[in-house]
Amino acid sequence: MSDLVIVASFASRPEAVVAQSLLRSEGIETLMPEFNVLMADYDPSMMEHGWRLLAREDIADEARGILRDAQLG
Question: Any bridge partners for residue 53, and if so which?
Fold first, then answer.
């Protein structure tokens, strides 16, 4: 089984959710560990890495490419 690696980080949750949806539409499943952070008890130190999308290491380059192409397009 492949390890999970960070494929992208975002400054906001909505950006991360859109990126995750794009990847899912391309058949790439990702995990967003910070998805369920309770914003009522928000502490900026909790989000030092931003909203991260993790994917299997063996498909990470493909996921990064899809996100890069989406930003350029």
Answer: 8
- Condensed to tens digits (0 to 9), the pLDDT of residues 16-64 reads 999 999 999 999 999 998 777 655 555 666 567 788 999 999 999 999 9
Both tokens assigned to 32? 């967003």
Tokens of 11: 């400054």
What is this structure's pTM?
0.82
What are φ and ψ of residue 39, in 5° steps?
A: -70, -20
CATH: 3.30.70, 3.80.10, 1.10.10, 3.40.50. Which one for 4-72?
3.30.70
Q: Is the separation of the CB atoms in 53 and 23 below 8 Å?
A: yes
